[in-house]
Amino acid sequence: MTTSVPALSTEEVLALPAIVPVWPTVGQAYGISRTTTYELARADALPVPVIRVGRQFRARRVDLLKSLGITDGAGVAAPTPPNENDPIHTSAN
Fold this sequence. Notes:
The protein is built from 4 helices and 3 strands. It has helices at residues 10-14, 22-30, 34-42, 61-68, and strands at 19-21, 51-53, 56-60. Strands 1-3-2 form a 3-stranded antiparallel sheet. A hairpin with a 2-residue loop joins β2 (51-53) and β3 (56-60). Residues 76-80 and 89-93 have low confidence and may be disordered.
């Protein structure tokens, strides 16, 4: 028996933080159940790269947006955070 999971709206996905839990966020974005989400995460078969933090599975918002084909309104999948080691973003005091 498959349980129907309501999918997240585009607005809900755009409002997500930079790193999100695989369940419920990624699973709900694709409308898949909790069990299936975790099975796919363990098998590295979700449509987004999975970040393992201890026993938790996480994903980057930018990867989720890209995999869903959602842009932020400016035609970009999501903003890329600045690299702290990038000379452009460091101050030369």
